[in-house]
Write a structure and sequence with these properties.
Pfam families: DAO. The chain is of the alpha+beta class and 223 residues long. It folds into two domains: 105 residues, FAD/NAD(P)-binding domain (3-Layer(bba) Sandwich), CATH 3.50.50; 97 residues, D-Amino Acid Oxidase, subunit A, domain 2 (D-Amino Acid Oxidase, Chain A, domain 2, 2-Layer Sandwich), CATH 3.30.9. 17% of the residues lie in helices and 30% in strands. The chain has a five-stranded antiparallel β-sheet. Strand 2 and strand 3 form a beta hairpin.
Amino acid sequence: MEIRTGAEVADVVRKGDSVVGVETTGGRLDADYVVNANGPWAGRIAEMAGIHLPVAPERRQIAVVEPAAPIPESVPLTIDLDTGSYFRPEREGSAFVGGHFDSASDSFADPNAYDRTTGLDWTVEALERAGNTATYFAPDSRVKQGWAGLYAVTPDHHPIIEKTVPGFITPVGFSGHGFSTHQRPEKIVSELVFEGESSLVDVSGLDSERFENGETVSERNVA
């Protein structure tokens, strides 16, 4: 295995209908398969291959909060499915507080240039919603720090897992929960490469054609 760091993909190389490699800032790499597991950048990489993928980088924020009342470490990740607010205990008595409230600040973002800090209006709303969900949070809760990152989001908030064209495998659009399920997608990608299909689970309903065919199942409870 060869790992190259700091080599940005500049183009995807096609030969006829097949993808056969990538051009990078460190030179060309020929490959039997290119796996587009690029998260927020996946749409741009697909465009280099002449492919449209309905996946967009969307900004999400999270705050590290010192609750008004200690949260036992045994408390699990808690989500208010009606509002999208969530929290979970963190080390030394802190808590992660987050949520997506359809704010204008949490919309499409340039993955190479976006605001990585939390906004004041969002932070106030996140704490208010957390306080409506659990008594751990009150007006004297203290915000210690926060940051923003990007989700790779599809229109129905479900991932795209497919062999998009010969030589080009797409596992993307996990909308923030790809890391927690990463072993299964990795196994599926491996099977798509070496077996041509997945035996672990039927992923036919997760191909990108579902958006053109109107066969989506929208996820209502999105945090």
